[in-house]
Amino acid sequence: MFWRVVLLALGAGVVWKGATWVVNGSTKMARFFAFPRIMLGFTIIAIGTSLPELGVGIFSALGGDTALSLGNIIGAGFLNLCVVLGLAAIISPVSINRSTLFGEAPFLFLAVGLLWVLGIDGVIDRLDGILLLVAYCAFFALIGIQLGTQHVHPHILNRIHEFQVTGKTHSVIRTLCMIIGGMVALVIGARLIVDSGIALAQWWGVPSLVIGLTLVSLGTVVPEMVTAIVSSRRHANDLNIGNVFGGVVFNTLCIIGIVGVIYPISIDSTLLTRDIPLLLVVSFGVIALLKSGSRLVRWEGFLLIAVYVLYLVAMLVATPAVHV
User: Which DSSP string corresponds to 283-319?
Assistant: First the structure.
């Protein structure tokens, strides 16, 4: 079992390195095309840093252990909203503009709410998975409309033409290779994490759901944590909002949707009565905190982290297998 722990740590390290490449490459690409950072966070970075969760979801579904995948997504949601945003707010206040607060932000609450409603019957089947994917397409369309109102599309086309004329396309290609390499590293790291997580769960006698809610989710959220720390130090706090909100929406709608299409997800009653409702409350609470002052300050960051610690302690105490 010692080597399983080593492989789990190695997987987290590979995820960390891959996340660094994705974040750095995405940031350079945004500079190339003057792409709004908030929208960059909602799209490229949110999807790129969520690749570990996607890898865990696909590998778990193919292995028939969807409880690990679902636990990972719910656990990652708590970590993103409480710990990632909390750390970002402690380092530097996290702000949000009005259009995002009333446009994309509500999708965070709606995504978790839709998952809860579809899972009331105890399973996310293929039809439910398709509905979740359609909902994510609607979210992505909203972002496209938002970009259209900011007249970003013509500017991007102009920049592409400029790079072609000046012959600087090699720098764009190099940056694109960095992003792709980072994404490959994220998937490889995710595979190491999920294999080690399942083995450790069996060895300790801990349910896969609990392992997914804790160890696996912590390992797969490392990219978002890296993004939060780097962005806060560079005072790019709008990137944090897009990364966290976009990541939670992507995980909840797209990843669970894909897993549900591959293999039906059985939902434990504990998730329906405790974890998903709590995630709904946390989602609403974060939006309310942002709405009150259009930003998260240091004391609110500490509050969010404290909420996660209380949730983690309560969950572990309520899980008999942990004490075996």
Answer: HHHHHHHHHHHSEE-HHHHHHHHHHHHHHHHHHHHT-
CA dist 284 and 303 (Å) reads 15
Radius of gyration of the chain measured on its C-alpha atoms:
19
Longest dimension (CA), the chain: 67
CATH of the domain at 214: 1.20.1420.30
**What confidence tier does 170 reach under pLDDT thresholds 50, 70, 90?**
low
Q: Is 205 exposed, middle or buried (0-12, 13-18, 19+ CB in 10 A)?
A: exposed
**How many CB atoms are located within 10 Å of the residue 120 CB?**
10
32 within 8 A of 170, measured Cβ to Cβ: no
Residue range 246-252: mean pLDDT, rounded:
88
Domain count, the chain: 1
Distance between first and last Cα of the chain: 17
Q: Would the pLDDT of 322 be above 50?
A: no
Distance CA 9, CA 25 (A): 24
Do 283 and 108 contact (CB within 8 A), yes or no? Answer: yes
Q: Measured between alpha carbons, how far is 220 from 187 in angstroms, rounded to an integer?
A: 10
What are the DSSP calls for 106-161, one per residue? HHHHHHHHHHHHHTTTSEE-HHHHHHHHHHHHHHHHHHHHHHHHTTHHHHHHHHHH
Q: What is the pLDDT of residue 132?
A: 95
Domain range for 184: 2-323
Supply angle C-alpha 30, 31, 36, rounded to 5: 50
What's the pTM value of the predicted model, to 2 decimals? 0.77
pLDDT tens, residue by residue, 12-51: 788 777 777 876 777 777 667 666 666 676 777 777 777 7
Dihedral (C-alpha) 81, 43, 144, 280: value to the nearest 10 degrees? -20
